[in-house]
Every structure is written in C-alpha cells, then in structure tokens.
Amino acid sequence: MTTPPEQPGEAGHDPQAQPPAYPTPPGAPTYPQQPPMTPPASPPQGPPMGGSSPAGGYPAPQQSPTYSGQPGEYPGYKPAPPPSPLYGYGQAREVPAGMYYDPSSELVLPNGTQLASHGRRIGAWFLAIALFIVTLGIGYIVWGLIVWSRGQTPTYQVLGMRCWRPDTNRVGTWGWMALREVVGRLLEAAIGLAAIASLIMFLVLKQRRTIHDYIGGTVVVRDPNKVLAPQT
C-alpha cells in the first residue's frame, strides 16, 4: 500500500510538537500561585495505648480569663455585704468592746447593766415623793445637785439605777441631768397633756423613755453591780 503524497505547503504531522502558544488577552488579571496549605497538627487527645505519655508531656490546658477584683468576683456582680451585728431599724453600728446589743430595746448597753423595768421606774417615782417629804424638799434638792454628776437622782441612787446617754455611750453628765430634771420635769408639771403623753410614751415605747428622758437624751438603766460608778 502506498502513502499518498504530501500536498505542497503542508507540514508533516509531528507527535512531539508542542501546540502553538496563544497570547494572553490584554487586561486579563494574573494571580500568583499560592503554595498548598497543610493542616496544623492536632495535639494528642489522650495517652496512647499502654499508659505511656509522649516525650515532653502533654501541653498545659489554656487558663480561663481572669478578672480584676476579689477572688471569685465577675464583672457586673458585687459580693454580698457581711451580716450586720445589729438587727434593729436604721443604720447598724458596731458593738464597742465591753458592751452588748439589747434586741428588745434596740440599744447598745454596757455589760452588767439592763434597761430599767416599768415597775422599778414607777417605784422610783413614788419613792421620790416620800424622800422629798422626809428631807423637807431642801435636802432632796441638795442631794440631787450632788448625784447629778454621776447620772443619778436621789431615788436612782437608792434603787441602783443610772441615766445613760445612747448617743455618746456615756453616763449622763451634770448638765444633761439638770436639763432633764429641771426643764423636763417643769414642762410635764406645767402642761397636763404633756404629763399624760409622757406616761403613755413610757409604757408603750421599747426604750421606755419619757418626755424628760428625750429632753436629756437619756435612758434609765439598772446598774446593780455599779459598773458605771465613777472610778476613784
């Protein structure tokens, strides 16, 4: 079989010949070739079989973010305040050394004392009348001028009671006792309604204060062991 002759001007077919390169159209963007990405190595999830750990140990776990402030405190939250030593109305106060909180009267009183009872206070009022008569009045007044500096009246001295000022945690001074016994008593004696109101306040209020107690800023406490007596 014979091969047909080649046509004039037609190149012979060469299987090793490369196809002709076509020019890139103008304006077409070219992109640099990126290297292939390799996935990051994941840390081992647990010890391999057999119980042995890899060389160098396992990486430490990441710590949670910390917040400034007290331990265990988180943003937006405040720790609960500590319990107050007092449970009365108003702002609580700390109990000083040598004193205690009386929940029935909501007062801070010295150790060894207690709020004078209604019966003792009423008994002191009747005793004052008897002493005033026995001493002809003048002796009772002089006696009172002496013991006012100790926070007492003649009857309070006999019955072991004193006037205590909760605002200062001190025994009533001479000036406060004079204000209580002179101004307060005269006000109650001059105005009948004031005397009745004073009696009702004494019977109803927790701190057993009368009008002359409020004027002198005092409460009456029983001091059987004389812990509030002046130190000599």
Spatial ordering of strands, largest sheet: 3-6-4-5
Q: What would you call the shape? A: elongated
The share of residues in helices is 25-40%
Summarize model confidence as the mean pLDDT: 79
Describe the structure.
By secondary structure, the chain is α+β, with helices and mostly antiparallel strands. The chain has a domain at about 110-220. It has 6 helices and 6 strands; from the N terminus they run E-E-E-H-H-H-E-E-H-H-H-E. It has helices spanning about 120-135, 140-145, 155-160, 175-190, 190-205, 210-215, and strands spanning about 100, 105-110, 115, 160-165, 170, 220. Strand 4 (about 160-165) and strand 5 form a beta hairpin. Helix 4 (about 175-190) crosses helix 5. The longest helix is centred in the middle third of the chain and has 17 residues, at about 120-135. The protein is elongated. The N and C termini lie far apart (about 155 Å).
Short description:
By secondary structure, the chain is α+β, with helices and mostly antiparallel strands.
Which labels suit this protein?
9% strand, two-stranded antiparallel ribbon, 4-stranded antiparallel beta sheet, alpha+beta
Topology readout:
Blueprint: E1 99-102, E2 107-110, E3 114-115, H1 118-134, H2 138-147, H3 154-159, E4 161-165, E5 170-171, H4 174-190, H5 192-204, H6 211-216, E6 219-222
Antiparallel strand pairs: 1-2, 3-6, 4-5, 4-6
Helix pairs in contact: 4-5
